[in-house]
Amino acid sequence: MAILLFRNGVLAHTKTYNNDTLASTSIMDVMRTHYASDITPEMNGDLVTVAGWIHEMRDLGGIYFLVLRDRSGFMQITMVKKKTDPALFDSARRLSRESVILIEGIVKEEEKAPNGYEIIPQTLNVLAESDSPLPMDITGKVGADIDTRLDSRFMDLRQRRSLAIFVIRHHVLQAVRNFLESEGFLEIHTPKVVAAATEGGTALFPITYFNREAFLNQSPQLYKQIMMAAGFDRVYEIGAIFRAEEHDTLRHLNEATSIDIEASFVDQFDVMDILERLIHEVYVHVSHSCAPQLRDLGVEPVIPELPFKRLTYDDALDIATQQGYSTEWGEDFGTAVERAIGNAVGEHYFIIDWPTDTKPYYTHPYENDQAYSRSFDLMHPRMELASGSQRIHSYHLLRQRIEACGLDPDGFDFYLKAFRYGMPPHAGWGLGTERLIMTMLHVENIREVVLFPRDRRRLSP
Ligand code: AMO
Considering 128, 143, 163, which residue would you say is the last residue of a domain? Predict the structure, then answer.
């Protein structure tokens, strides 16, 4: 491994490291002292070491500007020809955009510079040169379609807008964890390679597990329920779910991240209460913690008011009919119907009391009218965000429902077993992380809020 060090623009020396010494020695040589955001005009005269990517360069003949970008922002590096070592000046002018450099320089207060300061370099180390032309423009001058962006995702993610989304995603999940922990939930991790379908037999990705057939998990559903039999009382998981759906839409992925909870000795209304407070908390946390990122995205999330409206399935059906859409009782709502209801309501809302047959086998029917179930969906006006229910905890009823749904109870042995030796009443929900984020940030395409999305056509990068 070789590192080239330029001192005053001249190749000062080349160091060769073996793997053992690389970590300590090379880090010393590339020790950055400041991020862009750490530097202020008041540091006028201070020596700093900054590092990052060359975002832009402007050559005015006698003066050369580099805009250096790091995770925190941009810095203007200014070289006046007459005052700069000619070798350094020339080597700076030969640099290609997006090369990674390290600069030691003096901070100079400068009103006209973007942050009120510029850096006058004393040394410049080229740590990694970038090829050109670049696979896409990230300065915002030339737009790129989503496929071009995803094909070179590492480069696309260098854009402020992309970075902002993932900083916010980090904060969303931090808020989720803090909130659920404050409500007594324990974080768990369940298997992603499984033997049985969770949500019914469709939409499974089969894989070969040694010489047996296995599947990628569609949801932690069965395992989070088993954890209720284990007496863990309140659990949550943030993890990958895999859906082999053929959809090629702006709100479906084949690999998504689900936030799942399950809680014992509660009913569906208790977990709805947790869900709406969690959504509220996430919006508050992001509004407070992510002001610069929200500015980069040009959005101001409106914190939803509590409690959320609750429509029954039958109410929702009436609204759809009033809007000119007909849905048969017992059918799920299609996209257009969902939109029409969402437009009529105009804010987050729940649809409760779904027909039992539209929901999965584990959903508890109402005791007094088995055609309806103790179930709910949480809706944003644009789309469904979460679904959940009171679960069946009786072994016999669950077996019956599995059979009634046309599934073979023998395939669910490991799950059903947990219901035979003391399963408490329980309820829970699954919330799509990507849908929560895309609706909060007014992002059109779900692929934008996933680092490396998996959809019908995309398996790489
Ligand atoms: P459901 O299948 O409704 O319920 O999934 C829950 C939530 O996960 C998100 N989601 C998806 N997001 C993007 N692309 C997909 N293909 C996709 N599929 C699902 C949605 C959805 O509302 N086991 C139940 C949950 C429960 O009852 O606890 C379940 O998986 O936001």
Answer: 128
What's the rounded Cα separation, in Å, for the pair 106 and 48?
6
- Pull the structure tokens for residue 460: 């790489």
Q: What CATH number corresponds to the domain at position 58?
A: 2.40.50.140
pLDDT tens figures, 436-458? 999 999 999 999 999 999 999 99
The residue out of 95, 112, 128 marking a domain boundary is: 128
- Tell me: do 123 and 194 sit in the same domain: no
Q: At what angle do helices 160-182 and 268-289 cross, to 10 degrees?
A: 140
Residue 391, in any domain of the structure = yes
Q: Which domain holds residue 80?
A: 34-128
In a domain, 166, yes or no: yes
The strand pairing partners of 27, in sequence order, are none
What are the tens digits of pLDDT across the range 335-380?
Answer: 999 999 999 999 999 999 999 999 999 999 999 999 999 999 999 9
Q: Residue 118: inside a domain, yes or no?
A: yes
Pair 392, 225: CB distance under 8 Å: no
Rounded to 5 degrees, what are φ and ψ at 20? -70, -40
pLDDT reported for residue 199: 67
Would you say 234 and 429 are in contact if contact means Cβ atoms under 8 Å apart? Answer: no
Instruction: Give the whole-angstrom CA distance, residue 225 versus residue 231.
Output: 10
Looking at the structure, do residues 258 and 366 belong to the same domain, yes or no?
A: yes
Establish how many alpha carbons lie within 13 A of residue 35's alpha carbon, considering only the half-sphere containing its beta carbon.
6
Q: Which residue has the tokens 């309501």?
A: 345
The residue whose CA has the least distance to atom 8 of ligand 1 is 432
Alpha helices in 142-267 (DSSP H): 146-151, 153-156, 160-182, 221-229
- Considering the domain architecture, whether residues 164 and 277 belong to the same structural domain is answered as yes
Distance 432 CA to ligand 1 centre (A): 6
Separation CA 51–CA 104 (nearest Å): 9
**Mutational pocket test of ligand 1: of 235, 258, 356, the residue with most ligand atoms within 8 Å of the beta carbon:** 258
- Cβ of 373 closer than 6 Å to ligand 1, yes or no, is no
The two structure tokens encoding residue 365:
């029917």
